[in-house]
Amino acid sequence: MSTHSSFSPVDRWAGGPVGRRQGQGQGAGARALAILAALLLVSAVAHGDTLTEGDRPWQRGVSSEHRAAAEREFLAGNRLFERSEYAAAAARYRQAIATWEHPSIQFNLAVCLFYLDRPVEAYDTLQASLRFGRDGLRDHFDEANNYLRLLRDRISTLEVELPAGARVTLDGEPLVATDGTVVRRRLSPGRHALVARKPRFETWSKDLVLPPGEVTREVIVLRAPRTKTVRRWSAVMPWWVAGAGMVAAGAGAAALMVGNADQRAVTAAVAQRCPPPAGCPDGLPEGLASEEARARLTQRLGVSLMATGAAVVVTGVVLLVLNQPRQVLESSGLSVQVSSQDVALGWSHAF
Fold it and tell me: Using a CB cutoff of 8 Å and minimum separation of 24, what contacts does 113-122 make?
């Protein structure tokens, strides 16, 4: 099996692609990482550690055939790295790791991911390469930790305390707590969308702005939907309608009573002035005729008012039934949270 120096693109990185990459204007942070990567690679060349000698933890359970296959993929990745084909090189390194999770392979993949501007993946991969401590990366273990600290300044960490029974997503991907109720994620700095949903609770959402190199903690507190009491119309309006109908019906009843009394008076006068059997062959006297007409008009007016009043009372009762108070969800709302550095928008609505 190859030694560490031959099983690593160290000799090529130090004077090849790394040097070219530094001249492409990536900024101070990128140049510092590139220089550190070169130093790491040089130190690896200086120490000719073998990858397979001794009983190493990362060798256990891996057959010689798998190690050879991983080395082929690894060397292919090194050649692609020489040509600055970082995406293709990363794909080869991943294939090698799928066969053999060797710390050196993971370290080289982390450097490749850095050049692809994927600091979160680079950080996680570099951490994996350090899982065996100094024994895994030997003399450049300290440099690798420095590399890790530099990467840490380029990523954001989000801690989310999840409410029980809620479905929480971050940028559309579900968040699941494997231990307790707090989820910790490393993310690229910038904007991220955090949403929590739970049946019979308001949907909670927040537009996060994560600063680089810092830990942001979010505690999601769901609340039951806010309700309010509403009516179709004013609470007194049906009563006003029903009251107006009762007044009209009462006025009609009074008019009918007057009309009936007048009609009885006219009938009595007719019986006195035109007694039977002769009666009044020439018709009612002029005064009695007008009084009778007025009595009949009053009766008709009373009946009309009573009918109209009754209809209005019924309308008022119907309106009273339709105007019963009911609970409805409050309208969705947009909340604005202002901090010293940025403005965060939150949206909540009934679910």
Answer: 114/33, 114/37, 114/151, 115/17, 115/21, 115/86, 116/86, 116/87, 116/90, 119/151, 119/154, 119/155, 119/188, 120/155, 120/186, 120/187, 120/188, 122/151
